[in-house]
Amino acid sequence: MRRVRLAVVYDTGAASPLELSLLAARYAPMAVIVGDSPHAAAMMPMFAEFDHVTTLAGAGVGVGGVVAGLDGAGLSADGIVTFSERMLVPTAVLAERLGLPFHTPAVAALLTDKHRQREALDAAGVTPVRHRPLTDPARWPEALAHTGLPAVVKPRHGEGSRDTHLLRDEAQAAAILPGLPPGAFVLEEYLEGRPEPIFGAYVSVECVAAAGTVTALAVTGKFRLLPPFRETGGFWPSHLSDTEQDEVAALAVAAVEALGVTTGLSHVEIKLTPAGPRIIEVNGRLGGGIAELAHRAAGLDLLDLAARIALGETPPVRRARPHRVYFQHNTVAPEEPCTVTAIHGIAAVSATPGVHRIRPFVRLGERLPGGVHTQELDMLTGDAADHAEMIRILDTALSRLAYELDGSRLYSAPRLDGARSHVASGVDGPPALDGAPSLDGASRVDGASRVDDASRVHGMSDCDGASGVDGAWRASR
């Protein structure tokens, strides 16, 4: 029987096919088990040269079929891991069937079901939050009587803040609840953040569990959310004092342990409230963008770390404390549907001192679906001597970047110092951007930071089919 060192269960998540190819070179022979989403199907050609590839796609191919397929191919594995939220439960079942260390199916269920996770955290006394399941909007009064207002309604299963809404009053609830898609939701009390003039009132804690011991690897600072809960990036180290970092790290470890996690990476989101830190949610996998941040800030390879733990190693882990500030910033798509017709200022952003790279994630001519979930248009990375310099660098860079939507209006990220309001998604008419490039004088993408690499990593276009018009990249018509 042929034995692979590592099996990776893949779907949309924190690791790209390109990053997995680097992992495969280190852990050959490596098997990839591809999920059943449209994204996973589109990525299949990128796994053509991997040692062994199988799929969960198709009505007759579930976890049992994958196990049978591995057996039929004469394959077994020494370890298994996933970097995808939606693949946590299938990976847990596979691991149990194959006798490999991973989250148990019961733990994976707690990690992916927001209602059951809250129940487990409440039972352990880890910052209890009032919550109720909501399977029928008609039961809203019953749930509201328990949680009170303001409250947050979100899917019991899901990621990226999809279909997640803040309900501040009865009128807002009456407008939003009937429009929710079918499925199970959970209603929670809203955790009001403490005043934060520049940064977000929340952080994430990246945790590592090996041989039953959970360690906080890093505290990730966050930029302010765009309404309702759309994330715009993060940075290492966070802006918190050492005492506060120790406090949120200890809370994250307590939450991970309360859910029964004994192995692998976890990403814990924590709200900073006037009464102290409180758990938002625990994710039982690597957080999005964290691998890139860890590599630049601390020289850490978190995919490799996850692989080593999956193979039964207990690598030494200590808190990362970078001496400079390393950041990622994302321009987030507007809530209204629109088409990206040009990107202005890429070269100017790339030339900004302190910027490492900017990678667009959207095709020119691409139709954006809109909605309240977090859809990233780009990733801007860089580093600075301190947090104040980081803000200056980002404000300079973001003032040079704009997306042309529907051929007639500009859209950009907000400045972080609050000097100018965010360009709302166009509901009130075309925005006027102070300091933003004009439609006629925008910088070209020429010399930008390797858009082609971004397309390979994220499955996006490298601007093929676009044409340079008026000094900007525009979609061909």
UniProtKB/TrEMBL annotation:
Which superkingdom is the protein from? Bacteria
Residue stretches of biased makeup (Basic and acidic residues): 447-461
Q: Transcription regulation: present as a keyword of the record?
A: no
Keywords from the UniProt entry: ATP-binding, Ligase, Nucleotide-binding
Gene3D superfamilies recorded for this chain?
ATP-grasp fold, B domain
Where is the ATP-grasp domain positioned along the sequence? 118-311
Annotated region Disordered: where? 420-477
Under InterPro entries, the record lists:
ATP-dep_AA_Ligase, ATP-grasp, ATP-grasp_PylC-type
Residue ranges that the Swiss-Prot or TrEMBL entry lists as coiled coil = none
Decide whether keyword Nucleotide-binding is in the record. yes
Q: Which PROSITE patterns match?
A: ATP_GRASP (PS50975)
Q: What is this protein called?
A: ATP-grasp domain-containing protein
